[in-house]
Design goal:
- By secondary structure, this protein is an alpha/beta fold.
- Helices cover 27% and strands 21% of the residues.
- The protein has 8 helices and 15 strands.
- The chain has a 3-stranded mixed sheet with strand order 2-1-15, covered by helices on one side.
- The protein binds arginine.
- Arginine binds next to loops.
């Protein structure tokens, strides 16, 4: 059995119980304002998901949902955490922007330093587009995050940014096509990316589990990983779960079908609170040194 080099993060999450979940506007192709939605079932499914994440060994922290932001359950998007600093998103769509005010308050109460990426000069940035993988900060440029934001993220965090162009309207956040599993393995859906993005990910991920577009539509890349446990949405293709099990992961599933109606699944509902870019910072400063020092031959 192949061995797993567990991620250093993914054991502490911020989540938002969907007390005011609705689909009342459509900002991604999954959202249909006319489709029936069972809000009680959404709550039951969310409660079961939170319990599953806790039994996998992670801690869940809670933020209350504002009545005026029906999408707030998708907590991953509030911002990106680096140790005790969080860079808060600048949402593409106005409907979600008030979530940032609540997140800023929540992080402040907990003693984090919170900066708004927009105040640093960024265009759109939604944190569902940003991942730590190995010692790299990987960020999408696409429907929800502007390419011009990458420079601002690099300066804000003091790291190099690996850019992945997302071009698929239904796989609009990076967390729908890219799921870090451990230090060298990730689920990837290249159908979501442009040619340069595919090449970048090929370089970055030594051991990819490649899924096709239909597999990505099950939201199976929108899973979270707690050590060697992968918490996946019910409906994950058998092929994908089987591959993970052969690698030595334990797959557990949760039915979050009502929450899929907003265009997000498990990863979207969980903001990792234990990410640190310390390793990425030293890797990129070594990188800079290597460039700065003239060759001695
Ligand atoms: N309705 C939300 C939106 O369109 C869903 C967000 C899903 N979150 C995610 N991290 N992919 O913004």
């Amino acid at each position: 059995m192949a061995s797993i080099a567990p991620l250093a993060w993914g054991r502490r999450y911020l989540m938002c119980r969907p007390e005011h979940f609705r689909v009342e506007y459509a900002i991604n192709p999954w959202m249909d304002v006319d489709a029936p939605l069972d809000t009680d079932l959404a709550l039951t499914q969310w409660d079961a998901l939170a319990a599953t994440i806790e039994s996998a060994g992670a801690t869940v922290e809670l933020i209350g949902q504002r009545p005026d932001t029906p999408d707030m359950v998708y907590a991953m998007n509030y911002g990106f955490v680096d140790g005790d600093h969080v860079a808060l998103s600048h949402f593409r769509f106005d409907q979600r922007q008030p979530e940032v005010d609540s997140a800023e308050w929540w992080f402040g109460e907990l003693g984090y330093r919170a900066t708004r990426i927009a105040d640093a000069g960024a265009g759109a940035f939604e944190a569902g587009d940003a991942f730590l993988f190995g010692d790299k900060l990987v960020v999408a440029a696409g429907p929800r995050t502007d390419a011009s934001t990458h420079k601002v993220l690099a300066t804000t965090f003091g790291v190099g940014v690996a850019t992945v162009g997302v071009v698929h309207p239904a796989l609009y956040h990076l967390d729908l096509s890219f799921c870090p599993l451990d230090e060298t393995k990730a689920i990837i859906a290249p159908a979501a990316w442009d040619a340069a993005g595919r090449a970048t990910v090929r370089e970055l991920v030594p051991e990819p589990l490649v899924i096709d577009e239909d597999e990505a539509y099950t939201f199976c890349a929108n899973s979270i990983v707690v050590g060697d446990v992968v918490v996946m949405p019910q409906g994950v293709p058998k092929r994908v779960a089987g591959h993970l099990e052969r690698w030595g992961f334990h797959v557990v599933t949760a039915d979050v079908s009502e929450l899929h109606k907003g265009g997000g699944s498990i990863r979207c509902m969980t903001l990792p609170l234990d990410t640190s870019l310390e390793g990425a910072r030293s890797a990129s400063s070594h990188g800079r040194d290597a460039h700065a020092v003239p060759a001695l031959d």
